[in-house]
Sequence to fold (472 residues):
Amino acid sequence: MESFLNMLGQIGAGSLVTIKLFMVTLLFALPLGLAMAFCRVSSYRVVNGIANTYIWVLRGTPLMLQILFVYYGLPMIFPKLGEPGILPGFTAAALAFSLNYAAYFAEIFRGGIQSISKGQYEGAKVLGLTYPQTMRRIILPQVVKRVLPPLTNEVITLVKDTALVYVVAINDLLRVATNIVSRDFIIVPFLVAAVFYLVMTSVLTFLLQRLEKRYAVYDD
Amino acid sequence: MPCTMINARDLHKAFAKVEVLKGVFLQVTQGEVVAVIGPSGSGKSTLLRCLNHLETIDRGTIDIEGETLVATDETGVARYVKEADVRRICRKMGMVFQHFNLFSHLTVMQNIIEAPMIVKKMKKSEIMPRAEALLHKVGLWAKRDDYPSRLSGGQKQRVAIARALAMEPEIMLFDEPTSALDPELTGEVLRTIRALAEEHMTMVVVTHEMSFARDVANRVVFMDGGEIIEEGTPSTFFSSPKEDRTRAFLGI
Ligand SMILES: Nc1ncnc2c1ncn2[C@@H]1O[C@H](COP(=O)(O)OP(=O)(O)OP(=O)(O)O)[C@@H](O)[C@H]1O
Ligand SMILES: [Mg+2]
Fold:
């Protein structure tokens, strides 16, 4: 019994690392994704090209490769960061996750922005709203409603993707569980880890669905 | 001497090399109601949209209440005034669209008070009395907390009119305000516009409703192929049109 509680404690600590990585990624990837979406719909060719390339590369290569690249590769390119592998694993992982998820979020936001009809912009313009005012007050609130379902999917995927960080030696939920399994030759830690993941994804699904319901007060 | 509210001269506009406006002249004086009629594709919407900068003209001059919005220099290039001035001048014009363009995420009341609060920086308490009066005026006080998707087309259009009026425009532009409505709903919208005419609001109304043009307008303008073919008071225009194309359009 005591060892079971002990195991729960260890896996719990691991899940805190997972949650932290999840939060940090959202914190950076959501605004960066929105900025990239604006670049994607911008009429400036250069801005547009940069965003397109960014999204093309980050969505077209494995996240695992990107994590390894940041962890081992960046210190080789910028020696000031230290020896290869010296960049703290968590920082490297958070950076790679944020950059990668920003690309996915950007595409979701772009789709949302482009789904808003021209009439909404014109309605705002003839009332005297500037472009930034139109975006903030008229377009983005409607975009939020439309992107919530795909965003929910992506956020749930992010919870599960965090397990990839085992490659940079972070003691996240999955790695802690794996360590106990290989040390004690018991399968229970995997089951416990599965329950932890399920709890996280279920709570998120519940919260995001409540948010969706709040936006359901109006139809497009 | 009523002042000239809109003075548009020699407007040219092309979309991808196709000339849609081929030198249009339009003067509207204060309190005047001008009905613009003409076949589909004749450039009626484009004319209206050029007046309030939803489209930019290629050549010509537009003055609104004596202030230059755009003028054309010797080299034939249309030059607009500074962006802030364009915005200020265009705020004198309210516009009502065929497809309403209400903000779907805002209630009827929020649709009306949004622009005064954002653009004019009015406090909610300052704009509410006017918003309430406007909603009573268009007969939609009971619908103030509904979202646009819950309204009929006629109700949506009346909200759109109230929303435009909340900004206290000097001029109202209507682009086929009843064309997207079921026939039984056009009456309520036309009555609202007629009420505005009785208050001497300056208006330019693009319409397919000939009876409305005949009864409410002071002047009828007939466009075809990007030009104004003929204009006149409703009585002379409808009873004795001079041009063949007008006669063909009116079917007489
Ligand atoms: N944004 C645009 N891009 C390209 N062509 C356009 C655009 N807007 C209008 N046109 C073209 O310009 C011409 C005039 O269009 P406009 O909408 O002004 O006509 P209209 O008189 O309002 O017709 P309707 O009665 O059908 O509304 C049409 O041939 C139309 O296809
Ligand atoms: Mg039209």
About this structure: Chain B touches chain A through 27 residues (CB under 8 Å). The longest helix of chain B spans residues 183-198. The CA atoms of residues 115 and 152 of chain B lie 23 Å apart.
